[in-house]
Amino acid sequence: MSLPQGYYDLLERLERPGCAVCSLLLEVSNRFIESLLYEFSLDPGTQRAFRAGRGLCNHHSWQLAGQHGYSLGVAALFEAALDEVLDILQTTPEETLTGRFSRPFGGDARSPVAERLEPEGPCIVCANVEHAEQTYVRTFARHWHRADLQRAYRGSSGLCLPHFRDALRQVETREARRELVAIQIEKWSALRRELNQFQIKSAYNYVGEPIGAEADSWRRAVASMTGLQNATAALTRPE
Fold it and tell me: Angle between the 58-65 and 20-39 helix axes, to the nearest 10 degrees?
């Protein structure tokens, strides 16, 4: 049986520190943003998406703006978004533009023009990253029974809590879930011991061996509970 490329991507990323899925998502968003600026800033379909989304989400807008050497591409894309909101404001009848409608049964009054200014489509970077996230988690869960994946996972940092939850929802058998949980318990127990050692050795009156590998355990704990920094910003989680 042939395996998807995502499987080999996961195996390779499991050799690096941090959650493999998060690491891959950071690469996906960087690559997608670079392609937007390098190839698609004047593409009519991309500009329509920027109009519908009123740009991108806050996180990905600033990631886009932070790409060096692509200021003209950023200008072209956000001109489309700005043109759309100006068109809404300039074509809305004045009585609608300045009026407010009361909501039934109380609550805040609604502004029709404010509703029209809401995004009509998703942040296209978020949509791309969310699709990749679902694909990688599904690939991990479907192939968890493979010995090479389990071996790589045992030697890795493990998944972050959000992606561990997602994987547990999709791993098919009780025995497979039991094995995944057992490995994750080992990893988080080891991290908790490092956190404990870091706190002990950081005490002002501590006399003993110097701080070692546990020095960055607090950062790894943050990443383990929430995901790598910016990897899943603005993404919705399954319920």
Answer: 60
